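Per your request, structure below.
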């Protein structure tokens, strides 16, 4: 039984997506912070993640497509930081009723596929966010980084238009399936 680490995530396009990719480039070139830019497939919002049998991936995609979820907009108050040994920079998304409803529907429909859940997608730890920097950050340049990335510290709105099944088993995330929202 071969397993994969899979994240079920929401995808979005538009100007914020471009700004996030620009921020990854700035962090890499100016601060040598590149874990996210080197490992993430694209900006996204993870809803549920964990270990799944590789043979069940196709069936999971079919089940998620049958949910017939609609596109929706979501707002962000801007960037945030998790204070830990190494700071984690992210875009924080509002936890509106629709994202909660979609997350619950996706979790209910996919729970039987997961052998083990990723701890960070458990209800008591999960918040809707999109990573900017993780693992290779430090507090030394944080004020300079914040000033350099000030274009992210504004309110943003995006249209969520897809669900991704992202394989994060290896060193670089790979989108295995893309399900367009109706």
């Amino acid at each position: 039984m071969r397993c994969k680490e899979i994240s079920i995530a929401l995808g979005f396009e538009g100007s914020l997506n471009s700004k996030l990719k620009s921020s990854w480039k700035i962090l890499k070139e100016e601060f040598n912070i590149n874990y996210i830019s080197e490992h993430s497939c694209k900006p996204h919002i993870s809803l549920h993640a964990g270990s799944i049998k590789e043979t069940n991936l196709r069936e999971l995609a079919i089940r998620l497509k049958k949910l017939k979820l609609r596109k929706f907009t979501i707002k962000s108050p801007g960037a945030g930081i998790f204070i830990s040994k190494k700071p984690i920079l992210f875009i924080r998304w509002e936890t509106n009723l629709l994202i909660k409803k979609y997350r619950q529907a996706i979790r209910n429909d996919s729970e039987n596929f997961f052998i083990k859940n990723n701890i960070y997608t458990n209800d008591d730890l999960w918040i809707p966010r999109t990573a900017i920097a993780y693992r290779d950050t430090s507090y030394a340049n944080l004020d300079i980084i914040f000033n350099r990335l000030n274009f992210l510290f504004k309110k943003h709105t995006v249209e969520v238009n897809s669900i991704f099944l992202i394989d994060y088993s290896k060193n670089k995330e790979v989108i295995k399936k893309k399900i367009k929202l109706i």
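The radius of gyration is 16 Å.

Regards,
D.
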